[in-house]
């Protein structure tokens, strides 16, 4: 089995590089699309692509890194959980504060069933960007170019041993550049959109950029474990926001528009 993987490693590495640029393309689609529904769909595809990148990276980078392999479940989990949770935050008010925690969890799971279909009518009213589509594309391209320039400048300013490692592993440089670009595009998405669903998706695109850098660039096992733990808590906080904070905001303001969240209501 190991021999087969070794023989196929050039093909697997090429596929891995292609997927790295594919998730950057999905980040740009998320930023430029005009509807929340498409943003959610592109996010889901991006998360699945990121999980495949983790699997391919572990398969072609002996010795086996158990910590790295374990985080492949995170993007898959987010791909399946985030869209229905976003839908629930759009249409369903949270359970009362006096409800027992076990009942609140069951209420969340019950509300997830069919929530996306019900939320689509609301999502059609939101998701428009402040800038024209052509301007949004232009900004995304500029941010991507800036991310690549910064990544290559960082490599040239590192110690010679590290620089030599990256020179021999150009896919890692590309992954660092793509990760930085996704971080910038995620921030721009949050600035350019005025609804809380798009804000969360922009935050999640930033998380995917950080995730990619951890998977493809960090080579020290100890550092990998530390960053995996950090990403786990990042994901946990995001899920807590989706499960409790966003539905509470919607219940009080009766809107997912960001401007409507600025007014205090009883």
Describe this structure as you would to a colleague:
This protein has 266 residues and is mainly alpha-helical. The protein has one domain (2-260). The protein contains eleven helices and no strands. Helix 4 (73-91) packs parallel to helix 11 (221-253) and helix 10 packs antiparallel against helix 11. Mean pLDDT is 77; it is low at 94-98.
Give the domain tally: 1
- The helix-strand sequence is HHHHHHHHHHH
Cα shape? globular
Question: Distance between termini?
Answer: 63 Å
Which structural category do the helix and sheet elements fall into?
mainly alpha
| Sheet with most strands | none
Oligomer status: single chain
Uncertain runs with pLDDT below 50, 5 residues or more?
Answer: 94-98
Number of helical stretches of at least 4 residues:
11
